[in-house]
Design goal:
By secondary structure, the protein is an alpha/beta fold. The chain contains ten helices and eight strands. The chain has an eight-stranded mixed β-sheet with strand order 3-4-2-5-1-6-7-8, with helices on both faces. The longest helix has 19 residues. The two termini are 24 Å apart.
Length: 267
């Protein structure tokens, strides 16, 4: 399977760490010397810029208003060097309109214009990471781009699993060839992650006839909360954290072919 150029981060349910994962994956890929654009696709409640402590001159609202092009709204993000130390990985950000729900009312034509613009921009980047909004409404599904790799973020909460299943069902109806993979967040350990993954994929296999693989998992780590509180990517603030190690592994495995797993494994 080729290296994914456009990586969509989805969840179905909010509160599972989707935006944190989007930022961290962009940072991890950038630290591997990949040219990365992080796009805040949460059209209703954009907050990538907030989590990064970023105040961009332009955002997606400026694009929709016709003041700038999609390319002109891109901001380069990198933590400054401190005391002579090297700054964190550098990547580009296309922010949403933080603190405003106005973009959630975009028409299909406007959303189609955004996806066309992202396709054009993708020629300049090794990867575009899209932080999709939580939920299953039409604006979310319209932003899903054919040919992308979709990472569905789940926890072991029943509502997270049912909403993730609903998202996967809608996505595969829209794009039967969709490359869907699962990331388990807040996992206690590897076995806990596999059990959570199995709970979701058993339903996908029984009712949809597909078996989305486990792309990786992120363990519970109090240092995640600290990084978010300080509006700083965790790989920069806590490079030795358990979560940082897991995120680097996830990024590495995204760039390598998927292993073939038996359909009944860990079921």
């Amino acid at each position: 399977m080729p290296t994914p150029r456009i990586i969509q981060i989805a969840s179905g349910k909010g509160g599972v760490g989707k935006t944190f994962l989007s930022i961290s994956l962009a940072e991890a890929l950038a630290s591997m010397h990949r040219n990365v654009l992080l796009f805040d696709g949460d059209l209703g409640l954009a907050n990538v810029d907030v989590q990064l402590g970023l105040a961009p001159k332009h955002d997606l609202g400026s694009v929709i208003a016709g003041r700038v092009s999609l390319e002109e709204a891109v901001t380069t993000y990198q933590k400054p060097s401190v005391g002579g130390a090297t700054g964190g990985a550098k990547f580009d950000v296309l922010a949403g309109k933080s603190g405003s729900g106005v973009l959630s009312a975009l028409t299909k034509v406007e959303i189609a214009g955004i996806t066309r613009g992202l396709k054009i921009l993708s020629e300049r980047y090794a990867h575009i990471v899209i932080d999709l909004a939580a939920g299953l409404d039409q604006s979310v599904m319209s932003l899903c781009m054919p040919g992308s790799t979709t990472l569905v973020v789940v926890t072991d909460e029943p509502t997270s699993l049912t909403d993730a299943y609903a998202f996967i069902k809608l996505l595969t109806l829209q794009d039967p060839e969709a490359d869907v993979r699962v990331v388990v967040n807040f996992a206690n350990d590897r076995e806990h992650a596999w059990r959570t993954h199995a709970a979701l994929t058993n339903a996908c296999r029984n009712f949809l006839g597909i078996n989305p693989p486990l792309a990786g998992f992120v363990p519970r780590d109090e240092l995640v909360r600290d990084a978010i509180r300080h509006q700083t990517p965790i790989l920069y603030r806590h490079p030795q954290a358990k979560a940082s190690e897991a995120l680097r592994k996830l990024a590495t495995e995204l760039l390598t072919p998927l292993p073939v797993r038996p359909a009944t494994a860990h079921a």
